[in-house]
Amino acid sequence: MDKLVINGGKRLSGAVEISGAKNAALPIMAAAILAEGEHHISNVPQLRDVRTMGRLIANLGAGFHLEDSTAILDCSMIKNFEAPYDLVSTMRASVLILGPLLARLGRAKVSLPGGCAIGARPINLHLMGLKKMGATIKLESGYVLAKAKRLKGASIYFDTPTVTGTENLMMAAVLAEGRTVIENAAREPEVTDLANALISMGAQIKGAGESMIEIEGVSRLAPMDYAIIPDRIETGTFMTIAGITGGDITIRKCRPDHLDALINKLQDSGLRFKKARGGIRVTGPERPSAVNVKTMPYPGFPTDMQAQFMAMMCIADGTCVISEKIFENRFMHVAELRRMGADITIEGSTATIRGISRLKGAPLMATDLRASASLIVAALAAEGQTTIHRIYHLDRGYEKIEAKLQALGADIRREKE
Ligand code: EPU
User: Fold this and answer.
1) Is residue 301 a contact partner of residue 295, using CB atoms and an 8 Å limit?
2) DSSP conformation letters of 96-135
3) For a disulfide at 61, which of 77, 163, 205, 252, Cβ 3.0-4.6 Å?
4) What distance lies between CA 83 and its chain's CA centroid?
């Protein structure tokens, strides 16, 4: 296992290039199951989750390999319909193969993902939608067993917008008989990117990015040649790094228009943004100001940026309140930030952060992906040395993080435990 050793206190500056979005790459790879032939998916980040999704699809009978940042999937020979526990348990997004498998083979057996470090994360809404489309669903020995001769279009309403739920049902609906309408659908850019990939394969989808999506089923889809959008959460993480280190970072190959809510809050906190060639230049203030945030489904403030924003608020001028409205247990980073001297109290889904002038380096434990990122953000600005253990979480979501940070002047290195 690896750990990161960071000597903080440096003002980071320079340019960084953003990788493709993990949470767009995973559903788009799953969408390849829907059509025979060779799919080329470019701008895929080289991450453990991407390799896990590739293995999962290869396990169904497909060919999979990565050529630099292009995933090549040959889905001519999908025969197997099972996603086994040992793969699903390492990556919840495995559940994304449920919809496409059911549409392609009429059968799927997918291990239930179970809870994770940030909450219970049920998939009841995915299953409700598939049932409405005519699938029979059974839960047996920890597996979801789904069957349907041919799925039928249906009218589906989500009590709460779900990102992978919307994606799963969209992939099921593109080959269903007739029209499917998803109301209160998730509007995240990754959902729109998946819709665009499906449209490039011949699917008929209207309204992706809005809360009502309409899908008219077709009988066949063609393989895709598609490029993934840039990762908005990686982009946002570098913005908070500019903020906490008083840095000057030009972020290239990114889509700032996917981050309006975050940029607004960062501006309130004193960061400055300027359009730059191929991206955006972010300049941090002398000291950030405290700003309240509440996480919400897109276009609200992303839950995946809550931990990194909180790290920045630890040294802000003033007191702020951060409310987590998406997941019930997403404050695992708080105990670690406190070990660095942060003054944070939690009550239910609300954290109150009283800014201190300086964090101090400490040995820390990463608990989930975005919590790990927040510890890096904090460590970069802290006085002295921080060691972050269990960084395998980080390798699920951030491509070449230490090389990108070193290029900005950070003193960070990876070591074996
Ligand atoms: N929910 C239900 N029932 C369901 C599905 C969801 O009650 O059937 C609830 C969840 O418990 C949660 C809320 O709905 O309270 C929203 O969860 P959602 O389903 O949207 O989350 P997800 O699809 O499992 C994706 C991302 C997460 C990101 C969330 C929220 C992927 C692969 N994962 O998860 O990303 O936090 O949307 O934006 O797209 C990450 O990258 O670190 C990460 C956790």
Assistant:
1) yes
2) GGHHHHHHHHSEEEEE----BTTB----HHHHHHHHHTT-
3) 77
4) 21
Q: Ligand 1: distance of its center to the CA of 93 in Å? A: 9
Q: What is the per-residue pLDDT for 114?
A: 66
Ligand 1 centroid to Cα of residue 121, in Å, is 7
Output the CA 206–ligand 1 centroid distance in Å. 23
Q: Ligand 1 centre and the CA of 162: distance in Å?
A: 6
Annotation marks residue 314 as catalytic: no
267 has which bridge partners? Answer: none
8 Å CB contact between 323 and 350: yes
CB of 55 shorter than 6 A to ligand 1: no
- 36-70: string of b/e by CB count within 10 Å (b at 16+)? eebbebebbbebbbbebbbebbeebebebeeeebe
The closest of 237, 301, 299 to 268, measured between CA atoms, is 301
3 state DSSP class of 32: helix
Nearest CA to ligand 1 atom 37: 163
Q: Which two tokens stand for residue 12?
A: 């980071």
The per-residue pLDDT for 117 is 75
Q: How many residues belong to the chain?
A: 417
CA distance 163 to 397: 17
Report the SS3 class of residue 212: strand
Q: What gap in Å lies between CA 27 and CA 6, rounded to an integer? A: 34
Instruction: Say if ligand 1 is within 6 A of residue 119 CB.
Output: yes
- 299 upstream amide cis, omega within 30 of 0: yes
Ligand 1 touching residue 304 (CB < 6 A): yes
Residue-wise pLDDT for 54-102, tens only, equals 999 999 999 999 999 999 999 999 999 999 998 888 899 999 999 999 9
Is residue 206 very low, low, confident or very high in pLDDT (cuts 50, 70, 90)? Answer: very high
Q: 142: part of which helix (H) or strand (E)?
A: none
pTM of the model: 0.98
77 CB-contact burial (10 Å; exposed 0-12 / middle 13-18 / buried 19+): exposed
Find the catalytic residue in 75, 116, 254, 320.
116
Residue 119, pLDDT above cutoff 80: no
The mean pLDDT value for 153-161 works out to 98
